[in-house]
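#struct-help
A.M.: can someone run this one for me? Single chain, 140 residues.
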Amino acid sequence: MPSVFSRIVAGELPAYKVAETQDFLAFLDIRPLVRGHTLVIPKREIDYLLDLPEELYMGLWLFAREVARAIHLAIPCARVAFAVVGLEVPHAHIHLVPIQSMADLDFQKPRVELTPEEFQATAAAIQAKLRELHPQRPAS
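D.P.: on it. Structure tokens below:
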């Protein structure tokens, strides 16, 4: 059975997409720790990050870095934290979380609730910063 992330990639489930390439997808977490919390995945479903073939593994981190740069510009924060937990969904993924302090990276705390309009505005803000960083790339 495909993971929820594979179903998003296939277009079976909606997502607030931030960036997309042939191999990778970044979208807002629908249960964010903070506004701007983004998930970055390979489109190919592989459960464990360390099981990714080297080229896909390295490409995922480079893609995540570019998305994180845009998040940092779009969302007021001290840093964008990278977290790999991998227990929630059996599909390799990286959490990009805009943080002001370590407390913002507590996965046990209650999640932020955003309206669809707030999700859309957040995704659009990050996409705009990605376009500023890479004006030569086509929009996702």
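A.M.: thanks! Strands lie at 17-20, 24-28, 38-42, 79-83, 94-99.
D.P.: also worth noting: The chain has a mean pLDDT of 94.
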